[in-house]
Amino acid sequence: MLRKRLAIRIEGTVQGVGFRPFIYRIAQERGLSGWVLNDSEGVRIEVEGAQHTLDDFGAAIRAELPPLASISCLAAVDIPLVAEPGFSIALSAQSALKTAQIPPDSYVCPDCLAELLDPNNRRFRYPFINCTNCGPRYSIVSGVPYDRSFTTMVDFPMCASCLGEYGDPASRRFHAQPNACADCGPTLSLHDQAGTQLEGAQPLAAAIGLLKRGEVLALKGLGGFHLAVDPQNPEAVARLRARKLRDEKPFALMARDIAAAETFVQINPLEKRLLESVERPVVLLEKRTEQQLICVNTAPNNRYLGVMLPYTPLHYLLLEDFPALIMTSGNQSDEPISYADADAFLRLKGIADGFLCHNRRIQTRTDDSIIRVLAGEPLMLRRSRGYVPRAVKLPHAQPSVLAVGAELKNTICLTSADRATLSQHIGDLKNQAVLDSLQQAAEHLQQLLATRPQLVIHDLHPDYASTSVAQQMADLPQLAVQHHHAHLASCLADNGRDEKAIGVIFDGVGLGSDGHIWGGEFLLGDFAGFERVGHLAELAMPGGDAATREPWRMALSLLHAAYADDLPELAVLDTIAAGDKRLLLQMIEKGINSPLTSSCGRLFDAVAALAGLSQRVSYEGQAALELEMCLEHDLQLEPYTFSLFDDGQGIIVDPTTMVRELVADLQQGRGAGAISGRFHIGLAEAILRVCLKLREEHGALPVALSGGVFQNVFLTEKLNLLLAGADFEVLRHRQVPPNDGGLSLGQAAIGGCYLRNRTR
Ligand code: ZN
Ligand code: ZN
Ligand code: FE
After folding, report:
1. Cα 87 to middle of ligand 1, angstroms
2. CATH code of the domain made up of 391-495+739-759
């Protein structure tokens, strides 16, 4: 029988995820000899045995991979035989863990869950149970190498039993850094609304009682505090809304299990897989119309509910008493999520009636991630807990760069060789607290990746807070990147592509290279550069930013674009005071405080307001979302007509005819559902026609869809069908959001290309 020895090197998320015990087990099972160890790049294995057994071993590595592990690269070479007696886990190489990836936070694995509920287990109902296959990671890591001493678990010396498991290669807790039990690990505590600890209370039971009474519970979780209330209690939900100053934005829910979730939302097999995944994101799911369980105020005017499953042992214990709980981020609106106890007591004062805390410190705040299913595939809307800091593989290795994102839904990105690591969701850069967390994230990432960037990339917009943060890094060269170019590059990088594409970048607003406000763009470009080859016709934004908060302003602007002074009589405009209307029209005509924008988001706002939906909004993108939500799925609907013309510099998509058709619909009393449907289909068809024209001129190129508008499922699916039907290759986002949460990836790819070209 042919014997061989292989040297195998594996890179990826392979440390701190039970990889060595896994290799040890599958080698033992097959009677192979050799060893496995961690080193600075990942895991090294030498393994010896019969050829066919080695083949089987190789297959098992991929087939039985531990739930938190992922392999980015596996290489094996034949080496001379050694014939040692058995298989062992060797000591880690000294230079350990320079570039090895820190794993993301994860769910509670089925083995731990079974132990949690087993009265005979020593961790019965212990809310911090974990093992190498599950538990906290990124949120508790303070430095590298990934070792207990560089996590917040350093506060808890292990007891003899835990230490025994930690040192035993056959144990599921072999080198499980957060390993703990009730004798040695973190404990729960209950605090009143002022933050004073209530001694003698049974924290869990008391917290459940509080929720049952309809009160608001602040709950310390994995990446920060949640505010929890009982969604079956409308007064409780109203109380939370009032105290959180959150009028309409939907609240996310945590359901006890799939069966409980199925009573109020519809779940398809892919959605079920996402809900149950180790990442445990919030998944947007269609509400069951007949459901009675969850009160309407949880997500008003929304056809969807954001639902997640429990992901910490504590969640499981809490949810034993509720089919579902509202779990919204523990913050005042606009502020970052609280994660330190003292800070939570301060900032959630007046919101929470009590606090369920624990003494395991959170090192890095991470919000819940949000996903929806689009065209049969997952689409990331917010990439944070569970995914961060997993790297996105770039098409090439590049010099290290730091990209600081834009203004809203901010994330940052640090690259190292061909790996782009995006930060957790940092949020809207509206106040100092959020800016501080951006700066912390920039330092933390550099430390974790042991990388110093050679360039910092920021948005072209001089007034973004992220731009000033970049400019303060005076020791680094700077590169300003146009917003929509970054979106295009983000979509390319997300698909592992480095080539020229047509970018359909439909977005809110971003500063264009001509000083105008862009946001409905057709770009031709790649990482190296771009050309603007078309855009939506520009509309005035009377009052500037006020037009973003008050969609009726955009409605007037759109009508003015089609009718000039001769505005039609429309009932929907009656709610606006005549004086306001006159003033606004004058501003538009004379161009006073009315910057022009080609933003698609603002066009959605205008149509939503005309269709009788929100005249004012309480969060960005609300009008567009409501327009999508009310859409009538009627196959008989005729698209509205957008006309195309060439202004000498590119193709302009003109809404004049569309507006007239929309007004005729309003005058005939057609509802918002039909108007929304016709608008969506019309826009998709207009985009297709532009792409066809661009193909005539520039040849066959893939079409990359990016920008916040492509969170819209109906538009994206319709456009996808149309483009695919015309033989276009469509590139959509896969790993990062199409909105500004994915922007830093594109900035980083552009920055890397800039440095590569400069050195060439
Ligand atoms: Zn586990
Ligand atoms: Zn212990
Ligand atoms: Fe954007």
Report:
1. 24
2. 3.30.420.360
